[in-house]
Design a protein that fits this description.
This protein is mainly β. It has five helices and 21 strands. The chain folds into four domains: 85 residues; 92 residues, 3-Layer(bab) Sandwich (Phage tail protein beta-alpha-beta fold), CATH 3.55.50; 81 residues, Elongation Factor Tu (Ef-tu), domain 3 (Beta Barrel); 66 residues, no CATH class. Helices cover 14% and strands 36% of the residues. The strands form five sheets. Strands 1, 2, 3, 4, 5, 6, 7, 13, 19, 20 and 21 form an eleven-stranded mixed sheet that branches. The chain has a three-stranded mixed sheet with strand order 9-12-11, with helices on one face. Strands 16-15-17 form a three-stranded mixed sheet, covered by helices on one side. A hairpin with a 7-residue loop joins strand 5 and strand 6. It is globular.
Length: 366
């Protein structure tokens, strides 16, 4: 595994291939990261200064070098660790500068946030060089909508939250013109619930599921939200969402006084009471999604036989998992870790549960 260092124009500078180990993680919903471990070598440090971009052939993503540490060891001698995050972290450097109302098509809303705060902002010093937006034609994405109001939030955290709530991934990929291309993507369903794409299955019977864990936890669950908008005392505006009752009712208060009814829509007209309440409702939906039951399905798979990562399935895809206890689950590939040391290379996908397709009546937790 070789690491290629490139400059801000994506022009190759040097190749690094003398390290002891490299861990490189691509993620669907959030930033990726890397960690390179090596004996101390000043030439590597000089070749990978903080702020430089690095890339390697197993991944389409770029990473940004952000930190390094030099470690002294009496037995093994001095070592160094170089770390950083994927280039999507550039969005972490911007906030939503002005009050922004998003109403309507979800992809257009994401483009608006990027245009106004990173690609073509009114103040040109806020632009991120060479960043462009590429629209998706996937109906899974084009059919999504949003109704919310934002001011001052971190741009990356906002887009991450908006996308994860809708099970949509985002990425920034370099193109041949030296541009950084932001796009949304939904992944491909390769599980049993569809009959269009070839199935991808990880199960003991295929000898490609090394181990698996399953967990359910209702302790963080909230089912009803009271959302408080602008105003004080008896004049404060409220809406509520959720209809659960009795022991199934778990209440949450959401402070949304930052949402203003005096703000204007994209067309320049004041919000109606219905539009304002819709934005309060959206904030409540977002907070309830952050307080849902935890359902985890984690598995380590062999991606060298039967189904090969990068050929048969990709990050963001939905695959079928089955374990020795009779559970069959649909799970999304939300992370892929590429690891190399001096003896071997491994590719480890991480799966996040999508749905459960079989009864658990006879199931004993892993």
């Amino acid at each position: 595994m070789e690491v290629l260092v490139v400059n801000e124009y994506l022009e190759p500078l040097t190749i690094i291939d003398t390290f002891k180990s490299l861990i490189w993680a691509d993620r669907f919903f959030e930033l990726g990261d890397f960690e390179l471990y090596s004996t101390f070598d000043s030439s590597i440090l000089n070749s990978m200064p903080k702020g430089s971009y690095i890339w390697f052939s197993n991944s389409e993503r770029l990473m940004i070098v952000e930190s390094y540490a030099i470690i002294t060891d009496l037995e093994e001698g001095p070592h160094m660790v170089i770390k950083g995050h994927s280039i999507e972290s550039l969005l972490n450097r911007r906030i939503i500068w002005n009050r922004t109302i998003l109403n309507g098509n979800f992809q257009i809303a994401v483009k608006k946030l990027l245009d106004e705060n990173a690609i073509n902002p009114l103040d040109s010093v806020r632009s991120i060089p060479n960043l462009i937006f590429q629209s998706s034609l996937d109906p899974v994405i084009t059919s999504l909508s949003i109704d919310t109001q934002l001011t001052g939030e971190n741009l990356y955290e906002t887009i991450k939250s908006m996308c994860s709530e809708r099970n949509i991934g985002f990425k920034i990929i370099p193109n041949e013109n030296g541009q950084l291309v932001f796009s949304l993507y939904a992944g491909v369903n390769r599980a049993y619930s569809q009959d269009v794409n070839p199935y991808v299955i990880f199960a003991p019977e295929f000898d490609n599921l090394i181990n698996s864990d399953y967990e359910e936890d209702d302790s963080p669950l909230k089912t009803v939200a009271l959302i408080g908008g602008e105003g004080e005392g008896i004049d404060r505006k409220y809406v509520s969402i959720g209809t659960a009752s009795g022991l199934n009712r778990r209440e949450l208060f959401v402070d949304a006084r930052d949402i203003s009814s005096k703000a204007e829509t994209t067309g320049g007209t004041p919000l109606t009471i219905e539009q304002y309440n819709a934005q309060l409702t959206q904030r409540g939906i977002e907070k309830l999604s952050e307080n849902s039951s935890v359902i985890k399905a984690e598995a380590e798979a062999d991606t060298t036989r039967n189904f090969v990562y990068g050929v048969d399935f990709f990050i963001g895809d939905i695959v079928q998992l089955a374990n020795e206890f009779g559970m069959e689950l649909e799970a999304r590939v939300t992370e892929v870790i590429f690891a190399q040391d001096e003896t071997k290379e491994t590719t480890i996908p991480t799966f996040t549960l999508v749905s459960q397709s079989m009864s658990r009546s006879n199931y004993t937790p892993i």
